[in-house]
Known about the structure:
Elements: E1 4-7, E2 10-13, H1 24-28, E3 31-39, E4 42-43, H2 46-59, H3 68-79, E5 87-94, E6 97-98, E7 107-108, E8 111-118, H4 124-129, E9 131-137, H5 154-165, E10 170-174, E11 187-192, E12 195-198, H6 209-220, E13 225-227, H7 233-236, E14 240-245, E15 249-256, E16 259-260, H8 268-284
Parallel strand pairs: 9-10, 9-15, 12-13
Antiparallel strand pairs: 1-2, 1-8, 3-4, 3-5, 5-8, 6-7, 11-12, 11-14, 14-15, 15-16
Helix pairs in contact: 6-8
Amino acid sequence: MNDWVSINGAITPASEGRIPIYDRGFLYGDSVFETLRTYSGRPHALNQHLKRLRLSASRIAMELEVTDDELRRSIDQLLETRPDQESYLRIIITRGDGEFGLAPDLASNQRVVILARPLQEHPESFWSDGIHAVSLQEKLRWRGKRIAKTGNYLNNLLALDAARRAGAHEALRFDADDHLTEGSTSNVFVVRQGVLHTPDLAAGVLPGITRQLILECAQRLDIEVREQAIPRDMLEDADEIMISSSIRELVAVVTLDGQRVGEGRPGPVCRQLHGNYREYCIEHT
Length: 285
Ligand SMILES: Cc1ncc(COP(=O)(O)O)c(C=O)c1O
């Protein structure tokens, strides 16, 4: 067992971590979180993740009490428990606990929980073979919706469940107007005639840290990029589709709803971008 947790700065094995039953994160999902990984033992893109944590908090009217420096110190201390191994890190801040009730002002003392676990590395075949996806329309999703990464992840969980029940790895989600949004826990890219398309942030998608870094890789590689609304039919004759996330980096989707995407294997744009992204992460973390 090599999972460790820091709760308000106190580090214990994760199995011994204790959260009060009245913590609002448990009662209502009243929390924000970030998921990231290490490269060479150091947290990747930590500044960007801390910035997005604050953005998520502001979108649920929660002003974070902890400073970035305090979070950085806790993460460093936590990582000292796991030298020489790559880690999966989750930072969770709940609104805390207090008198029982729904009103947010009943809570005081936000709770800072940071979890460090061994990173479950995917085999290289994950990237060389690609993954299978299904499409999923969400009628209650619309353009312009402001997304926060909060403890309410039920829709994401249900999207992943739909994918797994269909024997796939990921669900590509569409809004009420049948425009592409994102995966269950990933952003999506579509390649057509050498141009890299991805839903713009106004599509109501999480501003993925990997998404942004992939767009920067594309710029370095002189790949034309368009951030725009993507109707479903743009995926039907796509040459390549791929998903991005901090843990999976960039992975090709080789079938969608059982139909081959392009040649049915990871395409040249995905391979080029992924290679460039890996190099960037190793050099800049
Ligand atoms: C809904 C959603 N979209 C996109 C992403 C990808 O974000 P990132 O690249 O910052 O990991 C995630 C990651 O968990 C997510 O949950």
